[in-house]
Predict the 3D structure of the following.
Amino acid sequence: MIFLKAFILLLMNVLAGFLLVQPVRWFLFFPKKQLHWFGKPVPFTPGFLRRKKTWFFTKVNFWVKYYLENAANRKDRSSKLWEWEHRIYDETYNKLDGVMRMKYLPAPVKEKIREILALFVYEFARHFLRSFVPFLVKKYELTRYIDLIEAKADVDQVMMYFDKYFHRYVTYFMLGLSGLIGLFNFVIYLLLQLF
C-alpha cells in the first residue's frame, strides 16, 4: 500500500508538470471564436493571439510612421530620437573620462579631445537614426511588408510552428523535470515510511 501511495505521488508530480505547460497553449490559441455565456461574452476569448493580431500590426504600423515623422523633424526636442541622441552623447562623454587621466596633456586639450570624440559619436548616431534607418524603411517598403505579413499571417499556422518547435520541447522538459522531482518525492516518501 505504501508503494502504491508513493507511485500516486510520482504520477501527481508528472501531471502537475504537464498541467503547467498546457494552459499557456490554451491561453494563446484557444478558443478560436468568442464564447458567450447567457448572452454575455466570456473574457479571454478568443485566444490571445487571435484577439491581438490586428492590434499588434496596427501598433507596429503606428510606431514605424511615428519613427519616420520624428526622424524627419530634426528640431523637435520632445521626441524620443532627440532623447536617444543626447543620451548617446552623454554616455559617450562619460565613458571618455579616461582621456582626462592622460599624462603630458594640458587639461583644456584633454577636454577638447573628449568633447570632439563625443560629438563625433553623437553626429554618427544622429545621421544613422535620422537618415540611414528611414532610407532603409523607404527603400525596402517596410510598411508594405508589415501589411502583407498581417494579411498572410494565419494564427493556425503560428500554432503549428509553436507546437512543432516550442511547445513539444517545453512539454518534454517539464515532464522530465517533474518526473525527476516526483521520483525524488517517491524515494523520500518510501524512506520516511520504511524508517
Remarks:
- Helices lie at 2-29, 48-72, 80-95, 107-139, 142-152, 155-194.
- The mean pLDDT is 90.
